[in-house]
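Handoff note, outgoing to incoming analyst
You'll be picking up this chain. Sequence as last confirmed:
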Amino acid sequence: MPALSRLAMAAALACGMSSVSQIVHAAPDCGSGGSTIEYNFSGQVIVCSIVSGGNYSLYAMGANGGNQRMDNLAPSYFGGKGAAIGGTFSLNFGDELWILVGGVGATHQGESLSGETYPGGGGGGTFVGVIRNNQPIAPLLIAGGGGGAGTDSTGLPGRGISGDPNVPDGNGTGDSAGAGGSNGNGGGGSTTDTGGAGGGGFSGDGGSAASASGGKSFLDGGAGGGPIGAFCFGAVGGFGGGGGAGWSDCEDDSGAGAGGGGGYNGGGGGGWIFLGDDGGAGGGGSSFYGLPFFVSSLTVQPGYNPEEDGNGTFLIQQLTRGEEPIPEPATLSILAAALAGLGLVRRRKAV
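Most recent structure output, in case you need it:
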């Protein structure tokens, strides 16, 4: 892994990302010059710099939640789809972007007894933070991940922007399900024995349940939650704060809850549905955009991710150039040639 700069290392520790092995200092240029640069799921936090200030088109899409599984059959219920959000944003020369692309929530892969059903882990959110002028990292653009599928229900979708009255609250489904987070915090874990854990938020981790751990926040590295215990394991949440799914005792098909999706506010873990003895679905994570950086053309698409692998993505494209603190390389070449020509003319006149 390329060595981290002292600034990046200090920023990582200051914002809680103590797992430096998950941070990669990429090529300096995040994507200037008009070409669209795509960042796909890697399981790492990518750090790059803005080398040319101006307006940029940014687009983020959260990952899908994990599917339900019964025996070795194809899933009957699928994880919630991740949200998508995009727009035009103003970025300055020297801004440093921290990019975490969400991973799909897992489907249970362990032992499967006849007739048992298993929920899915929460999908990871896609996070883009920005460090400007050595200030603390701020959220720039976040797309919520989808909740995991319950044992008998589809996962809830990644959500739009919290605070909008038309945006759901992010709660998981079922009795004693976890509540969706607020103010950048993770969702709550279910209080039932077999419930799912909450998805991580921007700054706060998801709440754990008795049988599953919550997803970590973006500022805490973004790892997905996992099962707690050693019986019929639940599924792991996706990178980007996906909450872990709960597990049953493998004997009576007691309903295990799914994990909540990661996002600016994490989704709550699924609870237990008394009627039918089923496990509830995980709530979706919410999306976000940084108003101080926003210019125009905001688009929000809850529950959108159509990718076959279910992972998230992030796209960046420079639209206009602002003031450049240093000339572009091509400009330097032209300037050097002009100065050389001027020197030749002066020498000829001196002769």
